[in-house]
Amino acid sequence: MSLQSKLAILADAAKYDASCASSGAAPRNSLGGRGMGSTEGMGICHSYAPDGRCISLLKILLTNFCQYDCLYCVNRVTSNVPRARFTVDEVVQLTLDFYRRNCIEGLFLSSGIIQSPDYTMEQVVEVARVLREEHDFRGYIHLKTIPDASPELMQRAGRYADRLSINIELPTAESLTALAPEKDSGAIDRSMARMAVHIGESRAARKEQAAQAIVSMPQSRTTRRASAPLFAPGGQSTQMIVGADATDDRTILATSARLYGVHRLRRVYYSAFSPIPDAARALPLAAPPTVREHRLYQADWLMRFYGFTHDEIVPPAQVGMLALDMDPKLAWALAHRERFPVNLNTAPRELLLRVPGFGVQTVDRLLAARRVRRLRHADLARLHVPLKKVLPFVEAADYRPGRALEAADLAAQLTPPPVQRSLF
């Protein structure tokens, strides 16, 4: 099979992996003629996935052969799809060639399981090793790791990759047992825990070294110590399939909160289930609405940056599911009208972050401005916030919302009706 044919098959097979953002990498470049590649600045030449996500990585599978029979996976062993497999050298050359053409800024590499988890993981790690050690590649590398692989291989992967990810696959252990019986939720959890320990130790060593460098700065001209090795500086992430089972959004967010808290994950990615050819009867016949995936990302953002806990984002009236017709922050505000209006001049940062239409940067600007003067209605207009959404929930020196919060149709006022878009 030609290299181009392999690329067509294995790039298409990788499209279901959502966790390929190139954030969190250590800054590196090839200035001065050393090495190849850079992790700095914006992407060079971006391509777009069908759902609009911007991708500037070579995103491929090492192979789509797989000995597992996960019912939701198009590459499962019983699936009737064209198969292909790259060699290590082919992936290395593709990465270097695409980078030389200014098409990518890095590599996202995953694989089906062939022969054994250790054999497959060894091949994946070897790609990263050759790029780093033999070609001095300084671009971004994200490796999808295999939970059942040996700890030694996982540790080697962290030395070469900017980010590692281990897919949790499904929100609950019961769902994983039902749809992917060969995968072990306990093994996935243990691998994440080991990865978190290695990442934490690496960061602690770097901080200690930096502190020692400051203390011994007068002697630094004559004594130079080797830097502590980095281990996956971009942290670890995971991906969760949404809609392949009956798990509700409240449970999904609870699982994400546990992963953020226990394993200190950098990101949890949500991937709406996509029907596959010759699907098992245990799978739904249709994909969930794509807006559900979008609402989960919004809720995830609220947990990570806005101080919300997972158990307060989904209103009890929604029976465990996020509202699809409005964002979760607005839904929470409408369900807790007694907490509003918020006074822009006296409210703490934690409460301002809960105002619909306010982002983190907006809140920080408001806090900086009110240190020197009282905030007024015109200040909101200058910040270009969505006034229609914000005004019912705030009060300023010259503005009171009156009975706007008491309006029975406030939700209808703030959520535009669905629009039937033309195909032409």
Number of strands: 10
Low-confidence stretches: 40-53
Which of globular, elongated, flat, extended, rod-shaped describes the shape?
A: globular
For the largest beta-sheet, the strand count, sense and barrel status come to: 6 strands, parallel
Strand content: 5-15%
Query: What is the structural class?
Result: alpha/beta
Strands of the biggest beta sheet: in what spatial order? Answer: 3-4-5-6-7-8
Whole-number mean pLDDT = 86
Describe this entry's structure for a reader:
With 424 residues, this protein is α/β, with parallel strands linked by helices. It contains 15 helices and 10 strands. The strands form 3 sheets. It has a 6-stranded parallel beta sheet. Strand 3 (57-61), helix 2 (88-100) and strand 4 (106-110) form a beta-alpha-beta unit. Helix 4 (151-160) packs across helix 6 and helix 7 runs parallel beside helix 8 (290-305). The two termini are 40 Å apart.
What would a concise description of this structure say?
With 424 residues, this protein is an alpha/beta fold. The protein has helices at 3-13, 88-100, 117-134, 151-160, 173-179, 185-215, 249-262, 290-305, 310-313, 328-335, 349-352, 360-369, 377-382, 387-390, 410-414; strands spanning 47-48, 54-55, 57-61, 106-110, 140-144, 163-165, 236-242, 267-272, 342-343, 394-395. Helix 4 (151-160) links the parallel strand 5 and strand 6 (163-165).
Layout of helices and strands:
Layout: H1 3-13, E1 47-48, E2 54-55, E3 57-61, H2 88-100, E4 106-110, H3 117-134, E5 140-144, H4 151-160, E6 163-165, H5 173-179, H6 185-215, E7 236-242, H7 249-262, E8 267-272, H8 290-305, H9 310-313, H10 328-335, E9 342-343, H11 349-352, H12 360-369, H13 377-382, H14 387-390, E10 394-395, H15 410-414
Parallel strand pairs: 3-4, 4-5, 5-6, 6-7, 7-8, 9-10
Antiparallel strand pairs: 1-2
